[in-house]
Amino acid sequence: MDTMKIFTYVGAVTCFTFLVKVARHIHCYLRPSSLHRSCPPGKDSWALVTGASDGIGLGFAQELCSRGFNVFLHGRNRQKLLRVQEQLKMQWPTSKTKIIVFDATKPTEEMAEIVREVGNVNLTVLINNVGGATGVIATEYLKLEDTTHQQVQDLVSVNAVFLAQLTRELLPILQKNAPSVILNMTSAASNGIPWLCVYGGTKGFVRSFSTALSAEMRAGGHDVEVIGVIVGSVKSPGNDVDEGFFIPSSRIMARSALDRVGCGRSQLWAYWPHRLQGFVFEWMPERLLQLVLIRQVSTLIATRDEKKKRT
């Protein structure tokens, strides 16, 4: 076989592999969601959403109510949760809601209280959404050496430890009530964004945790789907940016994540324009990517500081 034929075959295989990957990506965003399996007609099905006071968590609560679920609303501020509960009751009077107040920065053995709050209801969906840096550190972007010991502890607790411990506590219930779904919200920061070292590290944990737990459920024959949902920039109270093609509202982000249920992936970019941005992380050389991220984050910090001056 001459060299030209070898290159021809290698090129054909490469093109075929690329087209298969593209087709799989497109199918993931076009296929209908199978979330309805976890909420059959005539049966009271419940979902638990952590960090449901506002932002993406509130978006999940709204979307789940609109799809026939009853919802446990978790947060650490009872007054905020009561306002959300009243809002949901007005919009979807047939959906039941219950409040669970628990500080995610302090995941202790008392988390068994959450299991007791859930009780014997038909819990089939767990949305591990609580996280971020808001309320933990004064500013989202911070050099590692400028963070305190307690800030690092709290960032790890709220973004990783609480998620792992809550999932551990609720997993037997979700297995018993299968088919069930666990959505773990992770972030583009897991790819290594400067001035987000600790936060990005915890989101890297969530991605690995989701993939491993998905395999564990399959190995045990449990009909529990686990997806690590990778999130880019989203307009929310903690991220004061303008909506656009690459920046959805919190509810659109939540809707996109629920629409991906049943896609067969253990982690993915749920909002398809974020997937386009994700290709940059995968294809750009690391040194060049770092320079781009440094410039982008520096611009975001400057914009944030300018807004603070004006207000």
UniProtKB/TrEMBL annotation:
- Fetch the SUPFAM superfamilies from UniProt: NAD(P)-binding Rossmann-fold domains
User: Is Oxidoreductase tagged as a keyword?
Assistant: yes
Give the signal sequence positions: none
Gene Ontology cellular component list: endoplasmic reticulum
Query: Which Gene Ontology MF annotations are present?
Result: oxidoreductase activity
Q: Has the keyword Transferase been applied to this entry?
A: no
Per its UniProt record, what InterPro entries does this chain match? Answer: NAD(P)-bd_dom_sf, SDR_fam, VLCFA-Steroid_DH
Q: Which UniProt keywords apply?
A: Oxidoreductase
**Highest taxon above the source species:** Eukaryota
Query: In its UniProt entry, what is this protein called?
Result: Very-long-chain 3-oxoacyl-CoA reductase
The organism is: Elaphomyces granulatus
